[in-house]
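Researcher: Following up on the earlier apo prediction. This time include the ligand. It's zinc ion, with the SMILES given after the sequence.
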Amino acid sequence: MEFLKAIGLPHGADKGVINAAKEQASQLQEALYAAKDTIGAQKDRIASLVEQAKALEVRISQREEYVLEPIGPGAFAYIRKAAHDAQKKGPWLCQPCFDDGKQSVLQFSKTDWHRDAYKCPRCEAILWVPNNNEMRAQTASLTRGRFDDF
Ligand SMILES: [Zn+2]
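Model: Understood. Below is the ligand-bound prediction.
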């Protein structure tokens, strides 16, 4: 009775019409459930996107704290702006890793004449930075003359 009244059919309506109306109501119910599922999936997607947006905002604010500076001929690294002068000697963050969203501090690897090698522990990039090491000619006193063996 309530159903017939709800769908606008008079009491005593034809059974075929009633069954057709029930079938339509059942299909509408299924469509409603499907729509609710879609809405639920979209809510999950929105929540995921909001989290991604927050993570990107954090990443952007962290990125704004650094500036890309040359640390050697053809060698660039990110240096924190706040301590820019104090950190001219490091720590330096690897540029490719930083652009990839990772902070990797370049580590001293080895020294050479006039330059030091710094290596990224994450991507293994090597940057050469000038140093103050100078090549020195060393002499040794010889007790024997240079041509004594001849
Ligand atoms: Zn790296």
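Model: The helical segments are 2-6, 15-63, 95-99.
Researcher: Noted. I'll compare it with the apo version next.
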